[in-house]
Write a structure and sequence with these properties.
elongated; 11 strands; 120 residues
């Protein structure tokens, strides 16, 4: 069984920084892509940043130049470094991974979410 565990959220003041981490575990044959999504109260879940197994990244316009996503293939982890945080970044952040398991079954998995709160 594959699991994602994300962590690193917290409360910071505007302009501050946080780093989120997400680790995948279980019977994993390969990780195709990992990403971070977020969901603010009353809003739909949105993509924040993604990274492919080849290292290709993409970002939401609202976080470009402030957030950096990276992946450690050996430890099967993905990180999101968030600088210049703004109150509008307040949300629950979810790790997402496109994983092929040991039975060669491919599907998306989600972490449990970690709260990020930015005060002005």
């Amino acid at each position: 069984q594959v699991q994602l565990v994300d962590s690193g959220g917290g409360s910071v003041q505007a302009g501050g920084s946080l780093t989120l981490a997400c680790a995948a575990s279980g019977r994993i044959l390969g990780i195709n892509r990992m990403a971070w999504y977020r969901q603010a109260p009353g809003k739909q879940r949105e993509l924040v940043a993604g990274i492919s197994s080849r290292g290709t990244t993409n970002y939401a316009d609202s976080v470009n130049d402030r957030f950096t996503i990276s992946m450690d293939k050996v430890s099967k982890a993905v990180y999101l470094r968030m600088n210049g945080l703004e109150p509008e970044d307040t949300a629950v952040y979810y790790c997402n991974a496109d994983i092929t398991d040991s039975n060669t079954f491919r599907r998306a998995y989600w972490g449990q979410g970690t709260q990020v709160t930015v005060s002005s």
